């Protein structure tokens, strides 16, 4: 049985296939459904920036063709070229901010973990908003009193022949909201 390599068929595109500048102006224009002169104008206006060959010829990537299709759709809705430029810039900025936001949220999730030390010295992760507790026999009844400090809890645990696993939250780091 033969294995297919990247680039052999639509389902097996290489990871960077969308970024590769492979289409000449005429092919990109045909794929986007435009006249080649329109692509040259969009390049001059900065709406699309194709890669250049050594001889300064334009080479468009699949992503460039998709951008051209987006420009065409906006244009057909009656938006002028300056409006299209602003829309595309804002869409790119939103995408960048969403990526940054996702990265910051994943970092915050790691930082939001609270580490606590049990009476026996074991370090544990406690979910934010939850308090670590020892075994059920050390928990006070509803409305009952809680031990005043860890030494009190540990001494109570020692008399029963067990070691307390009561958790003591250390500190939680929070980033300022923007």
Low-confidence stretches: 144-161
Tell me about the largest β-sheet. 3 strands, antiparallel
Taken in chain order, the helices and strands follow as EHHEEHHEEHE
| Radius of gyration, in angstroms, nearest whole number | 31 Å
Task: Give me the number of helical elements.
Answer: 5
Structural overview:
The protein is α+β, with helices and mostly antiparallel strands and 178 residues long. The chain contains five helices and six strands; from the N terminus they run βααββααββαβ. It has helices at 25-32, 36-45, 62-76, 81-111, 150-160, and strands spanning 21-23, 51-52, 58-61, 114-118, 123-126, 167-169. The strands form two sheets. It has a three-stranded antiparallel beta sheet. Strand 2 and strand 3 form a beta hairpin. The longest helix is centred in the middle third of the chain and has 31 residues, at 81-111. The two termini are 56 Å apart.
Q: What's the structural blueprint in terms of helices and strands?
A:
Layout: E1 21-23, H1 25-32, H2 36-45, E2 51-52, E3 58-61, H3 62-76, H4 81-111, E4 114-118, E5 123-126, H5 150-160, E6 167-169
Antiparallel strand pairs: 1-3, 2-3, 4-5, 4-6
What are its keywords?
alpha+beta, three-stranded antiparallel β-sheet, 178 residues, 5 helices
What's a concise summary of this model?
By secondary structure, the protein is of the alpha+beta class. The chain has helices at 25-32, 36-45, 62-76, 81-111, 150-160; strands at 21-23, 51-52, 58-61, 114-118, 123-126, 167-169.
């Amino acid at each position: 049985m033969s294995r297919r390599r990247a680039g052999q068929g639509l389902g097996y595109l290489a990871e960077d296939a969308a970024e590769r500048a492979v289409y000449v102006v005429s092919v990109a224009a045909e794929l986007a459904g435009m006249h080649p002169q329109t692509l040259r104008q969009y390049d001059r206006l900065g709406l699309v920036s194709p890669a250049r060959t050594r001889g300064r010829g334009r080479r468009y990537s699949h992503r460039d063709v998709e951008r051209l299709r987006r420009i065409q759709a906006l244009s057909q809705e009656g938006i002028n070229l300056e409006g299209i430029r602003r829309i595309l810039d804002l869409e790119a900025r939103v995408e960048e901010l969403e990526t940054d936001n996702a990265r910051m949220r994943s970092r915050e999730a790691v930082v939001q973990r609270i580490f606590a030390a049990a009476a026996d010295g074991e370090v544990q992760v406690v979910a934010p908003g939850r308090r670590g507790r020892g075994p059920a026999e050390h928990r006070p009844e509803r409305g009952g009193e809680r031990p005043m400090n860890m030494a009190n809890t540990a001494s109570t645990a020692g008399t029963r022949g067990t070691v307390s696993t009561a958790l003591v939250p250390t500190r939680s780091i929070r980033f300022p909201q923007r």
